[in-house]
Amino acid sequence: MSDLTIHILHPAWLWLLLLVPMCCWLPKHRHRLPLPDGTATPALDTLWHPARRWRLFLAMAILLAALALAEFRLAWTAEQQVGTRPDLACVLDVSGSMEARDWPDALPPPGDLTLADAPPSRLELAKDAVSRLCQQDVAEHYALVAFANSPVLVSPLVNQGRWLSSRLPQLQVQQFEDGTAIGEAIACALEALASAPPGRPACMILFTDGVDHTADGGLLPEEAALQASQRGVSIHAVGIGGRHGYHPVETEGGGLVWKARGEPPDFQRLKSLAQATGGHFFQLEEAENLPDFLLDLQNNWPQTSVISPVRQDYDLSKIFLLAALLCVVLALGSRWRHPVLQK
Predict the structure, then answer these.
(1) Distance between CA atoms of residues 326 and 60, nearest Å
(2) pLDDT the model gives residue 244
(3) How does pLDDT run across 49-75, given as a tens digit for each residue?
(4) Distance between CA 260 and CA 252 in Å, rounded?
């Protein structure tokens, strides 16, 4: 505890303190009065005489009542361990492979299935997951990075997760040059998280269907994960889709055929990236698994606490008021019970 100070919220009530000396010097008995045992009282010209003690209690009651009405408060700064939510960077893969759609049990899609009747694409599934995370307020601040051949910082750290989720519908595969630069995307997210105040916990969630295509000389995912680990940023990797995804392809006649995705996702590499930074790996195969994924993520969400200075105060008004009432009771008792004052 430090910086102890006293605050007075209503100092105008302190004018009542002028009544205190008036109570002490009210007109008093200066003559001797006979007592029941036949003796006489001493002169009542002293303030501490038992017959005048009620005046002291009354003065103290007025003093304490004035302090209570003025609302004295003690204030101090104390260090407390408080829980805090981390800052979160959502890293979203918008490469061409994210347009693939996955069917339950790895069954091939019907030949005459339209886009309207097909399951959501991997990108739509990832957007839905990001949107729900933002609406659940799991983080203190949010940043959004979209990437394909290169990363783009869609939103720096903001404290409005719902505002960030409103940016998601604008992200389309056609806006990005095809490719999957996972390492560069992680580095971009680290730069976004670096704008947070020092000491604040941070993490990122990487949504991708999992095969890295880093250009020659580019930053490898393992190198980026090492940078994240050195900065204390955990990476939670989410593998979107299953091992049998299908792309919708338009035919020359205007029809639609479904072709299997040629390259299976590299979920083992995503697991390694997460483990290297103290994060977790999750697999999100289809829309039906989204509630289970969110629950699993919540159970493994980082629980952090920091030592933070907290300003505290204590209201002394109740103590002063109770003491004033006690003094009133003592004053009344002293006034009524003294034999001299009954004459």
Answers:
(1) 10
(2) 72
(3) 666 677 788 888 888 888 888 888 888
(4) 19
CA distance 336 to 280: 78
Look at residues 239, 335, 229, 223 and name the one whose alpha carbon lies nearest to residue 285.
239
* Mean per-residue pLDDT over the chain, rounded: 80
Cα distances (Å, whole numbers) of residue 109 to 106, 209, 227, 294: 9, 19, 41, 27
Q: Residue 125 is inside which H or E element, if any?
A: helix 122-135
Q: Average pLDDT, stretch 238-250?
A: 81
Q: Which CATH class is domain 87-301?
A: alpha beta
User: Domain residue spans in the chain?
Assistant: 2-78+311-342, 87-301
Half-sphere exposure of 4 (CA within 13 A, CB side): 3
Six-digit token pair at 155?
Answer: 């939103």
Identify the pLDDT of residue 50.
Answer: 63
H or E element that contains 213: none
Higher-pLDDT residue of 257, 38: 257
Using DSSP's 3-state secondary structure scheme, residue 333 falls into helix
User: Quick one: which H or E segment has residue 27?
Assistant: none
DSSP string, 187-211: HHHHHHHTTSPTT--EEEEEEE-S-
Which comes out higher in pLDDT, residue 54 or 178?
178
How much of the chain, in percent, has pLDDT values that exceed 90? 21
Q: Is the pLDDT of residue 316 over 90?
A: no
Looking at beta carbons, which pairs linking 34-41 to residues 24 or more positions away fall under 8 Å? 35/339, 35/340, 36/339, 41/340
pLDDT digits (tens, 9 = 90+) for 222-231: 999 999 999 9
- Collapse the DSSP code of 334 into the 3-class scheme (helix H, G, I; strand E, B; otherwise coil) and give the result: helix
Closest-CA residue to 90 (of 212, 202, 226): 202
Q: Which residues pair with 75 in a beta bridge?
A: 5, 313
